[in-house]
Amino acid sequence: MIKTFAIRAAIFIGGFGFVAGATLFAFAWFTVHIPDPNAYVNSQSTIIQYSNGAEIGRIGSQNRQIVPLAKIPLRMRYAVMAAEDRNFYSNRAFSVSGIARAILNNVRSGNLNGEGGSTITQQYAKTAFLTPSRTIQRKIKELVISLKLENALTKDQILENYLNTIYFGRGSYGVQTAAQQYFNRDVQKLSVSQAAVIASILRSPGFYDPALSKNNQKRLEARFNYVIQGMLDEKWITPEEAKKAKLPIIAPRTTSGQLSGPKGYIIDAVQKELSKAGFTQDQLLVGGYVIKTTIDQRAQTSAVDAVNKLTPTPAPTNLHIGLVAIRPGTGEIIAMYGGKDYVVRQLNDATQSIALAGSTFKPFALIAGLEAGIPLTSMWNGDSPQTFDDLGKPYEVSNYGDEGWGQMDLLSATQHSVNTVYVPLGIKAGLDKVVDAARRAGIPQDVAMIATPSVTLGVASPHVIDVANSYATFAAQGVYSKPFLVTEVVGPDKAVLYQGKPQTQEVFSKEVMADLTYALKSVVNGGTGSAALKLGRPAAGKTGTSQSNASAWFSAYTPQLAASVALFRDSASESLNGIGGLNSVTGGTFPARIWTAFMQGALKDEPVMSFPAPSNIGGLDPVVMTSGGRQSQKNR
Asked: Residues 158-178: what's their mean pLDDT?
């Protein structure tokens, strides 16, 4: 009797539970609607773009960039399906077996833990439209939204929305920002191996991102192999591609958010430039503007890659690297590396930090000399040390390594950065003329310079952008251009609200610039900047190593592009010596290598152009020059 009652009670309860569940599901079906799939994106956020229209980031929104499915390569789509849902295009909105397995595990554990083999459609519904709460009601809503999504959208549309919605860790939502966070490139540029890493990590970023723990590295390797094998099993890649697939180098982890990483310095610099143009912070945050910048996407990628690859190790935590590249004749800033992570350090090492200039200032003395009619063939005494007069006081100058060169012409002295020639050159040409040449070239008034013999050796402390723009003046054959970042601001109504335009002025003669460039070419062709020969095209520039190796520079240009790279620490009293295993870090080492690697990427596929022939100011006949300091200068 009791047994029969128990069976009937179980049937009644089960039936009641079924009816209640069915009723709840029916109620949800008619009351739960598919939300706007773009509701999570702030439509009023301001978009900042590269010069080609690709997105750098947004002000006032999550770190997310929407990419049409057509621009997401098949290898990325296949990698995600191999990792998460290999039968996506043939299965239904949700997995019955996955839900059954989840219910069984939940019953065993005594709680609703959200476990289950979700399809991509379920994952999209859960990520884009639902809260993370783990309740029966939320699960039913997930199933209802999944079914309605499948009825309302094609599989391609669901996959596109999913790939632009899912969280990949490091503050990045969607495959585009994930590609930038993990590999410093757009999703279209990912290799099969890189795509497989991103697909592997999305399952649980905290469990697989190798930057978080050593154990994650091992787990990622296993997951990566699983994804590659899945792509091979589904015939989405060939056996040859699978064999070549190796776990790639992953970019260092930065903090999350729109301002994280190197791009944060660009976004901040854009806001500062527009603030000077009259835009308020509130307008930029909620105005719904589209801001097009001068930043070239390929050049910027090359800048970050060059620094990531060639930053010296081991190195102190306060080693800073700044890089700026400017288009000669326009002032357009096409690349900027202001630091590793803006969120961690808000001081832009390209535009705000200062460092002793060292011998990057010698071209200003050379310009002053050429304008005074002193030829490159003029002969000087390159012995070391030498003492010169500094307002009645002795000023002792030594060459780098105390190397003596004897009698040498000005061209050779430029090639080898000979201090004991350049100090008397500045004196002969007029120290006030040296300062004037620096100002005309692009060193602004806020950089202190005093017309003393040491000014030629770079005792001033400019910003990297100041030096880069000065060398852009050289590349433009004497035409100075004011540097700028923003080309256009478009409002939400498509009206153009602002346009940035070149502001130029001819400040040096073409004849002087031709001879200057000829001399600076020798620095690359067998001089202190010979590392730049690997660029494989004509280049002219100057190394700079300051007193006591407090900073190291390489500033150089081709006819199309000028760039400056500087390495320095927080204080001028801190030396670079020993960094990267080098006894002495000069401008011809890490700075020149970073410059060259950057230029190789920035100028890829650009035509090889030549510089103008020298003008031979002052004639070709050698002329012996003589001219007769506080502290010993040993710059290079």
From this structure: 87
